């Protein structure tokens, strides 16, 4: 099998933003390794599904191994998997903390480390992290400490990796969304959530996909935290 066709890995790929990112990269003729806890193999031979907990290092190992054995290379990693728990700070449980650290931090660390090792061999690659604009501007009445703690760390790590790999052919960027209309948010919450943005509407999944695709093609952009948030990060 020819391995000249580019290959993307997408986490959190079974629904919402992740599923749309898989489709977008296939539309660009990438082969894709898609992973999430509940994902199933479909009919497209150029999409390989790997089910597993992204916070588990063994899942990262399997995803990277599948990409290399099936397609022979890894060009892009989109870290789309994430969980969001909005509670008053003192209401968070140990289970909440552990889940957020596992998915949002370990889930980025383990697979990014393994992917970066392969990208260093080919001296080329692109890593994109999905974070949140709440790390720039907290919103009164919307307590989100675990999102700020975990995704804020990923924003900082994005810049650190971009500098570490700046001369090695690997770019590292992040997309920082506002509230996006995904299955995560029940329809009855949409009016309230729209009001959290200066533009007074929620974002669409396509807005995030377009930002990722822009970063994919922007060869001179690295270390960027691209806000796609209806003005949320600018102020309220």
Automatic annotation (TrEMBL):
Q: Which organism is it from?
A: Sphingomonas alpina
Family annotation (CDD domains):
SDR_c
State the similarity comment.
Belongs to the short-chain dehydrogenases/reductases (SDR) family.
State one molecular function term (GO). Answer: oxidoreductase activity
Q: This protein is called what?
A: SDR family oxidoreductase
Q: Which UniProt keywords apply?
A: Oxidoreductase
């Amino acid at each position: 099998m020819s391995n000249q066709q580019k290959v993307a890995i997408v986490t959190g790929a079974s629904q919402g933003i992740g599923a749309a990112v898989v489709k977008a990269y296939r539309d660009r003729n990438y082969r894709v390794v898609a992973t999430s806890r509940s994902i199933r193999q479909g009919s497209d031979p150029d999409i390989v599904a790997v089910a597993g907990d992204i916070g588990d290092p063994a899942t990262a190992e399997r995803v990277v191994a599948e990409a290399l054995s099936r397609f022979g290379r890894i060009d892009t990693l989109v870290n789309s998997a994430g969980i969001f728990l909005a509670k008053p700070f003192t209401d968070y449980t140990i289970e909440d903390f552990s889940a957020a650290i596992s998915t949002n931090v370990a889930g980025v660390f383990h697979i990014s480390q393994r992917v970066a090792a392969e990208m260093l061999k080919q001296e080329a690659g692109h890593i994109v992290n999905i974070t949140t604009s709440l790390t720039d501007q907290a919103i009164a009445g919307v307590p989100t400490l675990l999102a700020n703690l975990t995704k804020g760390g990923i924003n900082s790590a994005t810049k650190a990796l971009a500098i570490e790999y700046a001369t090695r052919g690997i770019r590292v960027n992040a997309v920082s969304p506002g509230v996006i209309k995904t299955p995560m948010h029940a329809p009855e919450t949409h009016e309230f959530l729209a009001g959290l943005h200066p533009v007074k509407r929620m974002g669409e999944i396509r807005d995030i996909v377009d930002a990722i695709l822009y970063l994919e093609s922007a060869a001179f952009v690295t270390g960027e935290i691209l806000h796609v948030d209806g003005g949320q990060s600018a102020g309220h």
